[in-house]
Specification:
The protein has a single domain, classed as Purple Acid Phosphatase, chain A, domain 2 (4-Layer Sandwich), CATH 3.60.21. It is 32% helix and 18% strand. A hairpin with a 3-residue loop joins strand 4 and strand 5. It is globular. 43% of the residues are buried.
Length: 224
């Protein structure tokens, strides 16, 4: 495990909103530079207009900063679509914009190898001394140690929302997650949720949380 620096900056679901992402990263970089480890909580693609450009931006940012890239359920669906050609299933979950962004930028209509490598290397979770970062959440009836060591529940890390209905969790650390769009960040027992629905008109913000201070930095969506 990479040694923790002064703390972390976690960033919620981007969903193809590259211009919003760039502005937020510039703001954070100006304030914190490379003194923090960045954790991106997944759902880089789908729904928004610039999924390819989001991946380009993350790859470049990762060259100059310590980054942990978590896999979201939409990133998994994109990989599944590419590997198994589940075209219609993917379209039903917002994949049309992702396909269009690659078709518009890639002459051969193929996803660049560097992008596939990036997505395949994304992790289901990252564990620090005080926090665990995941896209969807962890089973609230299991301790973190139990959940992270039980591969049979790993798929739920991409999809679950059970913890939002069960605040009496068994977690021994704070779980930081995205996946569930909300108007304001979630701050409850052992949990921080920062998917503030950047791609959705009714929400429209990309949120970062700075840890350990637990300060939220938000950027209004500018991609539409």
């Amino acid at each position: 495990m990479i040694k923790e620096r002064d703390g972390y900056i976690a960033i919620g679901d981007i969903h193809g909103c590259v211009e919003t992402l760039k502005v937020l990263l510039d703001r954070l970089d100006e304030e914190y530079g490379d003194t923090r480890e960045y954790v991106f909580l997944g759902d880089y693609v789908d729904r928004g207009p610039s999924s390819k450009e989001v991946i380009d931006t993350l790859i470049e940012f990762g060259k100059t900063h310590v980054c942990h890239f978590i896999r979201g359920n939409h990133d998994q669906m994109f990989l599944t679509y590419y590997q198994d050609n589940r075209y219609y299933e993917y379209l039903n979950h917002g994949g049309a914009h992702t396909i269009e962004s690659y078709y518009a930028s890639c002459p051969d209509k193929k996803v660049p190898y560097a992008h596939l490598k990036f997505l395949v290397k994304t992790k289901l979770f990252h564990e620090g001394e005080e926090w665990v970062f995941v896209h969807g959440g962890l089973p609230p009836t299991m301790s973190i140690e139990e959940a992270l060591s039980d591969e049979s529940v790993y798929n739920s890390f991409l999809w679950t929302r059970d913890h939002l209905e069960n605040e009496d969790n068994k977690w021994e650390k704070t779980v930081v997650f995205g996946h569930t769009p909300v108007r304001q960040p979630i701050e409850r027992n052992n949990m921080i949720g920062i998917d503030t629905g950047c791609v959705y008109e009714q929400f429209g913000k990309l949120t970062a949380v700075v840890l350990p201070e637990q300060e939220f930095v938000q950027q209004k969506r500018i991609d539409f």
